[in-house]
């Protein structure tokens, strides 16, 4: 399980009254899976269970909980260069209804160096307990946000020293979790339809003197299908850059940079204008060295510098990203 306590002073967006709010979250769960292989089939079946509790003076009854369980199954059918993967999943939530999610994936090996992929699936997003039970801002009739997702792409090593992967995607979203003013309070409702579509591209070089380069890019076009307008506040561009070093004799290291262009409009709360800041990459440095390894036992020293250059990259000013922070230690694996 994991527990988080947060004490903060915040404004109730419905009343504009300054108040001290306390939050306490606790969650735990488990899962079980079983696989079976016979001929061209490889069947996977399983179940998940999760329970969450939220205690706060800002929600109805001061304490609310959510119980979730799911059952799922899929089959990978391999016929020569072609693989077909049908699947089904059923989810139950104690707060926002249940949901069935069919899926179908396929891959085809186009020669020895190229794989073509396609995938379609139905999915959902569960609203946070605060949006369902928050005092003055909660909506107990809130349902899950639904999505049909489609993807197609190619992965290839046809270029001698380079691995490439490109994916086109489209997400059609309904019962969108949107904010709306009701009886003077801004609450979350299921309203409208959206479409988010775009492209992802990744590249990585083969190691040269134990060193490789990696890069990734994603573009997302988010459209409100009811108004035809571009939706703000959803990342439009994302960039990733990495320099990786891996030598058993010396150790491993990685310098990685991540950037998001949020496309966020300023918002006004209590007469104050709140904006985001995303003018720089956020860089992380990861170093590790194996100290001992034998059979199933390994000991490794590690050091990580998060946000190495203290970059700012956040959606809105009241949720700023952490500045530079460091951690290090020894990992034991057995």
> Outline, from the CA principal axes?
globular
Radius of gyration: 24 Å
Q: Give the ordered list of helices and strands.
A: EEEEEEEHEEEEEEEEEEEEEEE
Percent of residues in β-strands: over 45%
Q: Indicate the percent of residues in helices.
A: under 10%
Structural class: mainly beta
Strands, total number? 22
Alpha-carbon distance between the termini?
A: 22 Å
Largest sheet: 16 strands, antiparallel
Low-confidence runs of at least 5 consecutive residues: 1-18
Strand order of the largest sheet: 1-2-3-4-5-6-7-8-9-12-13-14-15-19-20-22
| Count of DSSP H/I helices | 1
- Overall pLDDT: 89
Tell me about this structure.
With 334 residues, the chain is mainly beta. 1% of the residues lie in helices and 69% in strands. The protein is built from one helix and 22 strands. The protein has one helix at 129-133; strands spanning 2-11, 18-38, 41-56, 63-79, 82-93, 97-109, 114-125, 145-156, 162-174, 177-182, 185-190, 193-205, 211-224, 237-247, 251-261, 267-269, 272-274, 277-278, 282-294, 297-306, 313-314, 325-333. The strands form four sheets. Strands 1-2-3-4-5-6-7-8-9-12-13-14-15-19-20-22 form a 16-stranded antiparallel sheet. A two-stranded antiparallel sheet has the order 10-11. Strands 16-17 form a two-stranded antiparallel sheet. A hairpin with a 2-residue loop joins β4 and β5. The longest helix has 5 residues, at 129-133. It is globular and about 65 Å long. The two termini are 22 Å apart. Mean pLDDT is 89; it is low at 1-18.
């Amino acid at each position: 399980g994991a527990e988080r306590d947060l004490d903060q002073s915040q404004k109730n967006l419905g009343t504009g009254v300054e108040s001290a709010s306390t939050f306490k979250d606790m969650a735990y769960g488990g899962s079980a899976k079983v696989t079976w292989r016979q001929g061209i089939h490889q069947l996977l079946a399983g179940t998940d269970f999760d329970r969450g509790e939220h205690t706060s003076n800002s929600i109805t009854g001061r304490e609310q909980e959510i119980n979730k369980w799911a059952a799922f199954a899929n089959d990978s059918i391999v016929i020569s260069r072609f693989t077909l993967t049908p699947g089904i999943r059923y989810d139950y939530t104690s707060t926002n209804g249940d949901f069935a999610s069919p899926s179908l994936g396929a891959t085809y090996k186009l020669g020895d160096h190229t794989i073509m992929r396609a995938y379609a699936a139905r999915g959902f997003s569960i609203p946070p307990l605060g949006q369902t039970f928050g005092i003055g801002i909660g909506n107990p009739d809130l349902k899950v946000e639904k999505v049909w997702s489609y993807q197609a792409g190619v992965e290839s090593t046809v270029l001698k020293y380079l691995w490439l992967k490109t994916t086109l995607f489209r997400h059609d979203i309904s019962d969108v979790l949107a904010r709306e003013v009701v009886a003077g309070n801004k609450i979350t409702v299921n309203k409208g339809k959206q479409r988010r579509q775009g492209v992802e591209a990744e590249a990585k070089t083969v190691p040269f003197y134990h060193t490789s380069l990696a890069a990734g890019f994603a573009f997302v076009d988010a459209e409100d299908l009811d108004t035809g307008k571009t939706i703000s506040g959803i990342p439009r561009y994302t960039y990733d850059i990495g320099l990786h070093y891996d030598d058993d004799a010396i150790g491993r290291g990685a310098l990685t940079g991540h950037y998001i262009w949020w496309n966020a409009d300023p918002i006004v709360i209590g007469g104050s204008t709140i904006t985001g800041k995303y003018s720089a990459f956020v860089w992380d440095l990861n170093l590790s060295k194996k100290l001992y390894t034998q059979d199933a036992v390994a000991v490794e020293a590690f050091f990580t510098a998060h946000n190495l250059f203290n970059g700012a990259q956040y959606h809105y000013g009241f949720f700023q990203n952490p500045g530079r922070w460091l951690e290090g230690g020894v990992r034991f694996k057995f």
